[in-house]
Amino acid sequence: xxxxxxxxxxxxxxxxxxxxxxxxxxxxxxxxxxxxxxxxxxxxxxxxxxxxxxxxxxxxxxxxxxxxxxxxxxxxxxxxxxxxxxxxxxxxxxxxxxxxxxxxxxxxxxxxxxxxxxxxxxxxxxxxxxxxxxxxxxxxxxxxxxxxxxxxxxxxxxxxxxxxxxxxxxxxxxxxxxxxxxxxxxxxxxxxxxxxxxxxxxxxxxxxxxxxxx
Length: 214
Known about the structure:
Elements: H1 13-42, H2 47-61, H3 71-77, H4 82-88, H5 97-126, H6 128-134, H7 139-142, H8 145-166, H9 172-182
C-alpha cells in the first residue's frame, strides 16, 4: 500500500479575492507607517504626525480586518486641532460646541490608539518570540518601539487630563452627539470594557459609556 498523497485544497475565487484585498490593505498600511514616520522624524516634538503614526501601526496590526480605525476615525485624527488650543489659551475664549466635539473626538481617538499601541509594545517586551510569530514589522518601524513606549507614558496622562477637563463642558445635545460619534472611529468596540482588556481603567470616566445621555 502506498502512502496517501495529501490533497491540495483549492483556494476558492472568493477566498482569493479576500486574500488579495487583505494584502492590498497591508501594503497601504505599511506605506502609511513609513510616511508618518518620515514626517515625525522631521520634527519629533510634533504630536500631530505622532498620533497618525500610532494609528497606522494599529491599522497594520489589523490589516486582515480592514484596519483598526475606520475611515471616519482616521479623518478625525487628520484634523489639526492646534488652532483650537490656541483659541482656548486666549483670555475668556471658548470654543463653539461643534468645535469642542471635533477637538474631543480627535483627542479621544488619539488617546485610544496610544493605549492600544502601548499595549502592543508591552506585549513585545513580555513575549518577544510570540510577538515575532504574530507580527512582522519593517525593521525601521520596530526600532522605534522603545522610544514610542517612553513617549506614550508621558503623553497618556496629559491626554486624559485634557479630556477630563473639557468633556464636562459639552452640553447635553452635543454630549449625545459626541458619544454617538466616538463609536464610529474603530471597527471593534474598543470603548466597551468587556471588549478591550488593555488599560481600560485609564479611559476617562466621562467617556466610558454612551448610556449616560438620555
